Structures are given as C-alpha cells and as structure tokens.
Structure of Reverse transcriptase domain-containing protein:
Amino acid sequence: MDELEAWNCRRHTTQFLSGHGCFGYYLHRFKKLDEAICVDCKSLIDDAEHATFHCDRWWSSKRALEVDISKPTEPETVVDEMIQNKEIWRAVKKFVDMVMSNDKKRRGGEDSPAASTSLV
Ligand SMILES: [Zn+2]
C-alpha cells in the first residue's frame, strides 16, 4: 500500500466515524440534492450510518463481514470492537472503504468539500 492509498483508507474511515462523507443527508445540507432519501431502499435518512449498517444495498457484504469477524456489526458496538481487535479493525475498515467508494461513484464521484479539511 503506498502513501496515497493509505491516506485514502484513513480518510474514508474518518468520514465513517465522524458521520460525514459523500452521502445524501450531508449533501442535503448543502442543497445539492432535493431530498436526502436513499436511492436504493428509499430510507428517509441516507447518511454514513444508514449506508454502512442499515441499507439493503450492502446487506450481503455486511453479512459476509459479520461471518468474517464473528460479531454482529451494530453502530453502538462496532467502534469498540474495532479498537479492541486489530483484525476486526482491518475487516470493518475494508468494508467501510468499499461502501464509501461505491457510494461516491454512485453519486457521480463528487467529493464532499469538508472531506479534505476534516482529516484526523
Ligand atoms: Zn438505503
């Protein structure tokens, strides 16, 4: 993994943990979309948590992740699990990176203006 790749992974994980990113709810605040409704399952809230934990679009990938780490992935517990176990951290991060980069592509590849300034 080169430096740029590592940075991109960290950026996506940071977006996920902070609830920002290229998602409808976020874009809605900047009036880029008319509605913050998920285009896949019509959920009224389409944010990072929705895409990662609740959306039908990622159901099979999420299930594969749960089998992989032998834990349920719930927003209330997954961050604690990630911090305690490096393998879980890696597996969840890979899943989040996949969800984030696909979601960005789905919306036409536009990056959020805050993403480049909210790095940890
Ligand atoms: Zn959805």
